[in-house]
Each structure stands twice: as structure tokens, then as C-alpha cells.
Amino acid sequence: MMTKQDLEAIENQISTIQVSSHGETVNPVLAHGGFKTVENGRNWGWLLSGFISLNILLLGIAIVSGTVFNKIQITSSHLLIFLILLVILTTLWMVYYKIHTSRVYQAVLYKDSHAGPVWLRGLVINVSSVYMIYYVGRIHCESPVKIAFPAVQALFVIVQTYVLWVHAKDCVQIQQIITRCGLMLTLSTNLVVWMMAVTEESLHQTVSIALTHSVVFLSGRAGASECECSHNMCDVFEKVYYYLYPFNIEYSLFASAMAYVMWKNVGRQMDDHHSHNVRFSLWDVLIGPIAGLIILVAGLATFVMYEVDVAKEEPKKKEEALIIHYIMNIVAILLMSITTLIGCIIFRIDKRDQVSGKNPTRSLDVGLLVGSSLGQFLICYFTIVAVLASGVLGHINGLNLANSILTVIQLCLQNAFLIKGLHREPFKEPETATVFANVMAVRERDPERRSSSIVPAHTLPIPLTLLQGRLSWKRRILKEICAFLLLCNVILWIMPAFGARPQFDNTVGSNIYEFQTWAAVVNIGMPFGIFYRMHSVASLFEVCLTS
């Protein structure tokens, strides 16, 4: 009698049998020298591409750090030259992949139905043209590299968006080493671009706040530029770039995520035929969107008030703005924690199966959620220690402490809810239904069914969609929760992404840790926190669809 392991080995061998171009059955295990050769090639591809990515990222970190803390030897022009080389190499590889690799016969035999979700492919905001026009007005006194880089980046974004949109689901079977190295090059390039954008924005925010608080901040870019613009639109384009900045950094991170999923799918010989056609209807939910919209509108109103009052630089106005900001956040986070807890309880009693098999997209989603949430955990725990060390003096510090503690609880609950939701199989709608209603009318129309009291749904004049229109109470509550949490995460993304920095306006952190240490904590944790909220919105939308 064969064991379970023997049966699995035979099944795997049968599943790898393919048909050659001459119509003969070919076993790739035998044709290519066995699994050992295939495995060795795969390991070499992973190793080489990993080394390429590691070296590019470490070199990028070194150059970015050098431009921040050294103004003379390493300038921003050196960083931009490095980025231009990376962007050009990545663009050339993507063009090669599109016109050659993807068109080779049997290059892509399989597709990953979970890769390249719509929310990720749809976030395409190109701010390079805005930044290029901004620097055109300073061409007489700025380096030409600062104009060339936005132009090259614009071409890179267009090519990358097209390639990822069309080929995100590919499981490439040929030229695997070259493809893996190209995808790691793409991932690393996007991460270096993201690091540069985040560093510049964080430095801009920190220097502005340091000047407000009369703090000396040592940086190679701290000084104001002496180059004046030659046209009147520079200020306008600078403000436009400021408001589009959050979308720019999210695009780079999402593109990196898609490149990683494609890298994991290289050589993958499994076609997922179990994709589900999920639908979204506004009629499925009501209370969640309404409550979420209320929180969203209230958050926008308090955010505008906060920005206006803080800009006045009046101590009393700033205190009032901080109090309103903390109260708004506490209310939103408290409601989110309660609804998320209810969702976790529903998942606990839910009988749906867990998603089986390896899924690079789902694994990446969970990794990004947990990893990016560490940024907010970092800021919250530093804030808790600072407030407790200061003695929790005044209403502002009390609200700050409550806000930080509730944020930690909400992050834990939301991560648990999303991880459970992303790993559940979608609800399956029955294709037919059995109805014990209007039996006499059907008997009159169909004599063959006069002896039966059970009538299939397709024999009734009532559309089947009406019979299936009502969702079960678990499905409806889950959809309401997802819709509410989605809108709440949107407002929690908008406020820090567009300039709210209560960590600096409330001086308790800078007083306890000193300004430069506190600035480093905030500038490291804030970009990850912003990405966490955006990624949570996308994950909540997917959980809502599968519910």
C-alpha cells in the first residue's frame, strides 16, 4: 500500500506533465534533468536578484543620508544622477520584458488571479511633470539634473504603470534569472525613489518646525534656497506638488509591492482556477457608510481648523486646535476599536474555510500591514513614555495619552480583523434555490410538477437575484464594519499625509527626548503610519468584497 507521501509525489509529477509543440507528452522533470536542476536554477535566480536589490538599497541609503547631512561633498545632484541611472536601467529592462520576454512562445503559461488587484493598479498619480515645471523656472541657477530627473521619472512611471497593469499576474517560465533580477531592480528603484521623497518631505517639515520653535537643526539642506524663480507659477506648482506628494510616495510603495509579487511568481507552475467573481453593491450597506461619512466630514472640518489655528502661532489657539484634534481622533479610534472587535467576534463564529495553498499576494498584504503598523506603534509608545514622564500635566497631555493608548489597541484589533478577513474564502452564492411558495400557481402552469410541493427557483417567474438579494446577518454586519472602517482610515490617512503634525505642535516629546531625537522618531514612524492607513483602506475594500 502506498503512503500519503508517495501519492503526493505522483500527483506532483503528473501535474508537471506538459505537451510539447510536436504534440508529444513531455515530462519536464526528465526533459530538464530532474527537479534538482530546476531547483538549482531557481536558487541562483533568487540569490543573484537578492544581492542586486540589497546592494542598490544600501547604496541608495548611503547616498540619501550623505545628501542630508553633508552639503558640500555629496549634493542632491549626485543623488539625482544615481536615480537617473537606476530609472533608465529599469525602464530599459521593462521595455525588454514587454517586447521580448512576454512574447516568447509559452513564456507565461500561468496567471496568478490574486496578483495586481484593482486598487493597487489604479493608484497612478504622476507628479513628475509638476516638479519639472517647477524647476524650469530655476534653470538659470539650478543644476540641469534637477530638470532632467522629473522628465526621466515621468517616462519611467508611464512605462512601469503599463507593464504592471498588463503583466502583474504573469508567472514567467523562461529567462527566469534575468526576469528575477529585473524585477528586483524595479523594486529597489521604487524604494530608493520613495526614500528620497520621504526624506525631502520629512526634512522640510522638520526644518519648518525647528525654525518655529527656534531650534538649531543640523542639515545640509536646512538653508533656504537663494535661487529665485523666473516665472510667477513656481509657488503654485510647489503647492500642487505638496498636495500630490502623498499619492507619489504611495505609488512607489505599491509598485514595489507588485514587483515583489511578480518576483515570487517567476517559475510558479500553478494556475489558480478558483478565482471568485465578487461584486460590490451600494445597496448591501447603509449604516456603515453613513457613520463613516460623518466621521470623515467631521475629521476634515477639524483638520482645516487645526491647520488654520496652528498657522496663527498663538499659544491659546494652538492649545484649542490640539484639544479638538485629539478629541476627534479619540472618538474615531474608539468607534473603530468597538466595530473591529465586533468584526473579530463574527470571524470567530464564521464557518468559512481558510484560503488554502501558497498565495504571495496575501502573504505580502499581511506582511505590509504588520510591518507598516510598526511606525505608528513606535510613535505611540514613545509618546506614552514621554507623557507619563512629564507627569500628565494639563488636558492636552491627558488627551494625548488617551489617544496613544487607544491607537495601540485599535492597531492590534484592526490587524487581527484584516488578517482573518484576507485569509477567508469568499461567500459562495448558490446558483439555484428551492422555494416553498406559490406552489399552486406553478402546478397550474406545469402539469408535470402537480405531484410535487417543492419548486426549483428557475421555474418561477421571480428573478433569482431577488430571492438571493437579502444578505445573511453575518455578511451584512461584516460589510457595514468594513465600509465604516474604510472611511475612518481615509480620514486618518488624510490628516498626517497633508501636514498635520501634533507630535511637534505638542512639545512634550521634544522636551523629554530632545528635538533631534524626537524628530528622528517621528520622521521614521510617520511615513510607515501613512502607508499603513492607505494599505488598510485597500485591504478593507477587498474584505468587504469577499464578505
Overall description:
There is one protein chain. 69% of the residues lie in helices and 3% in strands. It folds into two domains: 39-211 and 231-265, no CATH class; 286-427 and 471-546, no CATH class. It is built from 19 helices and six strands. A hairpin with a 5-residue loop joins strand 1 (18-19) and strand 2. It has helices spanning 4-15, 28-31, 35-69, 76-99, 118-122, 128-136, 145-167, 176-212, 234-265, 287-311, 315-349, 360-390, 394-422, 439-445, 464-467, 473-497, 502-505, 508-513, 515-546; strands at residues 18-19, 25-26, 108-111, 170-172, 434-435, 455-456. The longest helix has 37 residues, at 176-212. With 547 residues, it is mainly α. Helix 11 packs antiparallel against helix 16 (473-497). 35% of the residues are buried. Strands 1-2 form a two-stranded antiparallel sheet.
Describe, in short, the structure shown.
This protein is mainly α and 547 residues long.
The ordered string of helix (H) and strand (E) elements is HEEHHHEHHHEHHHHHHEHEHHHHH
Shape: globular
Alpha-carbon Rg, integer: 28 Å
Computed structural class: mainly alpha
- What's the total helix number? 19
Helix content: 55-70%
Number of strands: 6
Strand order of the largest sheet: 1-2
Q: Tell me the span between the first and last alpha carbons.
A: 43 Å
Largest sheet, in brief, is: 2 strands, antiparallel
* Number of structurally distinct domains: 2
Average pLDDT over all residues? 76
Poorly predicted parts: 13-35, 272-276, 431-437, 449-469
Note the beta-strand portion: under 5%
